[in-house]
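Appendix B, Record 12. Input sequence as logged:
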Amino acid sequence: METDFLVIGSGIAGLTYALKTATSFPDKKVTIITKANKEETNTKYAQGGIAGVWDEANDSFEKHIEDTLIAAMAYAIKKWWR
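Logged structural output:
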């Protein structure tokens, strides 16, 4: 296989780079490789990288911490207790 740009990782950073590169160099081939499959990214486990408290009237930092811990526990259970 030949490529002009090799992107390692399909998380938010890798896909952003691949998209910008493909847009900037439409005549070049951009290839993305991943550790497992295209959906298996650390960004997914980081809840898209955008978790936070945006509306303090309806949310709180305590709820944000609770949501993060719940997501981490779901990941741990899925990964280690198959």
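The longest strand covers residues 5-8.
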